[in-house]
From TrEMBL:
Stated name of the protein: Obscurin-like protein
Organism: Citrus sinensis (Sweet orange)
Length: 782
């Protein structure tokens, strides 16, 4: 957000509030440190010598730069100003072209920091300036000469101690430069803050002459073929320039110029005024009026200003929406893109604004297309991966991340949600649909890009994910507003259910981008889950929105498959979405019918039990526990039958991945649930218990694991097993374990044991035991 105008240099304040760092060609040094006091004294001495000796030598130019290195702390007194005027007007000195901007900047510092300079010196300065621009500018003109001249002329016209006659002369000269030499700005647009500051000073002058003429230059120049390019940063400069000017009028109770702005700019703008400049100027007027609501100026004047500004902004938004045909998430022309960006920043910085359909739809377009342009970025990434221009594209994406537009995304999203609460129902529905579709699109787009970039260009992927993380926060804030509006008794139950399901599906699509625990996120989920829990059709609708088993295990994009092998458990974006389903569905499992669970959920549940991420595997086990524990189905027999059928594959799937990917607590909870909730005497329970305690299978699996260890590892494990078996009181199974350990110890002691068939260890225990001729140590220990 904009900082207060506490700088005496308007151009620097404009730069800071527009997200533009001070230009390296600014008269301030590119180095961060100021010149020393000794260097400053020496610089003034050198300049006096140049005047006395009638020679401006090469080392005098660095002397000027030394002084400007300390612009913030430098004070130029009247004698020093007189020295500068003498140098710049001397006919005996052949000044280089680059010295003029430096000399003018020092005079600008004098004007801005002096409290009461000599009237005679002021008159001299204006006379010198007039002569310089008449005689020297046409020969030695440059963008910097031009900008510093505008800045100094504007400062003279604004200074309270300058006589009215001198102010008028400065304004006349400034207008001539604006109208006749504006092309110089387009050759180096880094000087635009200086030019705009000069205009701001001139508009704020106590002299009324040329006021409309200067306004014309400000709002026309952007549309001229050889004028400066319109950008968001320059738009913000216009916004804060008008804010600064009008705030000054309000403080001075200067109503006449405010009325001119309302009439000439906001209410009846000329055809050649550029919409982007008008839009940002109107936002600046709104911002100034909001800050000055308690001022002593007549409220009628400020009210007219606010109404006129709001009407102009709405008019621009309406025209934009009419041309686009509604909310746009695809690429439009550059002018439309710029206006969308400016509208979003204008609303973010101008404070409260009446809610209306065009503004709301423009904000939606700006958020999805300009601030979080993920769909466009994914498409471009997919295209340029086939070329060698990835470095350029990565820089473009990072520049967006560093832009003032992206940095104010949170404020813009807040304004967007405030607008949602007040717009008509039709507009709400339009934007809701667009947001839900956007969530689906970025899920599909990011899933593809993540598979292509991970391990190949992780830096670019990381930047894209930062943009997506911010988009997730916007979706959460918007969704919270939707739930507050729709999930209440004012709307039919069917509407509430449909909204709840669409929110859950959308959240599943953006779950991958959730990097923190958000109270707004949790509150929204709690609210919508309650609606889904109460309705079977809503629950079924949500369950069936989950990707199918075939979609989860097979990638359908052949352009991606040509470059890589698809491995389902490495698809992190998809995994995050399924994890969301695995966590939410158990809360409404009572409403999931047995056929739906069999057809939709069971395949995915069993698939993700084998996921290497323990968190995901545990969630799959929790899904199984939830279903086994449920029992309020309309067809109880069918549900019980399905439970018993699932147990057999559940045990097989769990034990096959144990202890690798199957979490012990997850499997234990599943066993406890099925023993507790299946009918007593169920064959499924018997199979479960039997699967857990058939000893030979476990001995076989453990033997295979130990045989693959290095020698030191084998010895370590065997010693641990010896100790455990020796301390065991299980007289039933201990003899089998002793014999098995004898065989395993023997095989591990043989050099050729690593290629032995693992079935010899666990399968035919007696034949292997016969080979154990060297087991006295084992017997002694056991």
């Amino acid at each position: 957000m904009a900082r207060q105008a506490n700088s005496i240099f308007l151009e620097e304040w404009l730069r800071n509030n527009s997200g533009v760092s001070a230009n390296i060609t600014s008269r301030q040094s590119s180095a961060s440190s100021s010149s020393s006091a000794r260097a400053i004294i020496q610089a003034w001495t050198d300049l006096r010598d140049s005047l006395q000796n009638h020679r401006f030598q090469p080392h005098h130019l660095p002397s000027l730069k030394v002084l400007l290195n300390s612009q913030t702390s430098l004070h130029v007194a009247d004698p020093q100003a007189k020295l500068l005027l003498s140098i710049i007007s001397s006919r005996n000195l052949d000044l280089p072209s680059e010295s003029y901007p430096l000399l003018l900047r020092l005079l600008y510092i004098w004007v801005r920091k002096s409290f009461k300079p000599s009237p005679a010196l002021i008159d001299l300065a204006v006379e010198v300036l007039t002569n310089v621009f008449d005689a020297e500018f046409s020969v030695k003109k440059s963008p910097f000469f031009y900008a510093e001249g505008l800045l100094l002329l504007g400062a003279f016209s604004f200074a309270p101690y300058v006589p009215e006659k001198s102010k008028m002369a400065c304004l006349q000269l400034l207008c001539g430069l604006l109208e006749g030499e504006y092309r110089l700005v387009s050759s180096f647009e880094g000087i635009l803050p200086d030019m705009l500051a000069g205009i701001g000073y001139a508009l704020s002058s106590t002299v009324d002459v040329h006021f409309v003429r200067i306004l014309n230059s400000l709002f026309e120049i952007w549309g001229k073929e050889d004028g400066p390019h319109a950008t968001v940063c320059y738009g913000l400069m216009i916004l804060h320039l008008i804010e600064w000017v009008i705030s000054g009028f309000i403080k001075s109770n200067y109503t006449q110029k405010i009325e001119v702005i309302s009439q000439e700019i906001l209410e009846k703008p000329k055809e050649n005024y550029v919409p982007f400049a008008l839009l940002m100027g109107a936002a600046g007027a709104l911002r100034a009026s909001a800050k000055s609501a308690t001022s002593g100026m007549g409220q009628g004047i400020l009210s007219r200003l606010r109404i006129s500004a709001e009407n102009l902004i709405e008019s621009v938004a309406q025209d934009l929406i009419s041309k686009a045909g509604g909310v746009s998430t695809s690429d439009d022309n550059i002018a439309s893109s710029l206006l969308l960006q400016c509208i979003s920043l204008a609303l973010a910085r101008s404070g409260s604004l009446s809610s209306n359909r065009p503004l709301f739809l423009c904000l939606a377009s700006a958020l999805l297309k300009e601030i979080f342009p993920l769909q466009n970025l994914y498409m471009r990434v997919h295209k340029y991966l086939h070329s060698n221009s990835s470095e350029l594209k990565r820089n473009e994406v990072r520049e967006h991340l560093d832009s003032v537009l992206f940095k104010e995304a949170g404020v813009i999203a807040g304004v967007f949600c405030n607008q949602y609460a007040l717009v008509d129902e039709e507009s709400k529905c339009i934007v809701e649909d667009v947001i839900w579709d956007y969530c689906q699109d970025i899920y599909l787009g990011h899933r593809r890009v993540a598979l292509l970039l991970r391990g190949r260009d992780d830096e670019l992927l990381g930047v894209l994910e930062k943009i997506a993380e911010s988009a997730f926060l916007m979706v959460v804030l918007f969704t919270l507003s939707v739930t507050k509006h729709r999930l209440n008794s004012k709307f039919p139950h069917e509407t509430q259910i449909e909204t709840s399901v669409r929110i859950l599906v959308s959240f599943s699509c953006v779950e991958y981008f959730r990097r923190m625990r958000l109270s707004e996120y949790m509150d929204t989920i709690r609210g919508v889950v309650v609606s889904v829990q109460e309705n079977e059709s809503a629950c079924v609708s949500f369950v069936e929105s989950m990707p199918s088993y075939a979609d989860l295990t097979n990638w359908q994009d052949f352009s991606v498959l040509q470059k890589m092998e698809y491995i389902w458990y490495k698809d992190e974006v998809q995994t995050a979405r399924i994890l969301f389903y695995l966590r939410v569905i158990p809360t409404c499992i009572e409403r999931v019918t047995a056929p739906i669970f069999r057809r939709v959920l069971a395949p995915t549940m069993f698939l993700y039990m084998g996921h290497p991420n323990k968190k995901v595997a545990r969630a799959s086990h929790s899904m199984f526990v939830g279903f086994i524990s449920s029992g309020k189905d309309s067809d109880q027999d069918e549900r019980v039958s399905l439970k018993e059928q699932l147990v057999f594959y559940y045990m097989e799937r769990s034990l096959a991945e144990y202890p690798g990917t199957t979490p012990f607590k997850g499997m234990a909870s599943g066993v406890v649930a099925l023993v507790r909730h299946l009918p007593a005497g169920s064959p499924a329970i018997f199979y479960c218990i039997n699967s857990l305690v058939v000893l030979s299978n476990l001995m076989k699996l453990l033997a295979q694991l130990i045989m693959n260890l290095p020698k030191d590892g084998q010895n370590l494990v065997l010693n641990e097993l010896f100790s455990l078996v020796a301390e065991s009181d299980d007289v039933t199974r201990k003899p089998n374990l002793v014999s098995w350990l004898q065989s395993l110890s023997y095989l591990c002691s043989q050099d050729t044991s690593r290629v032995a068939n693992s079935t010899e260890v666990g399968g035919d225990r007696n034949s292997v035991s016969a080979q154990a001729t060297n087991s006295s140590d084992l017997h002694a220990r056991l």
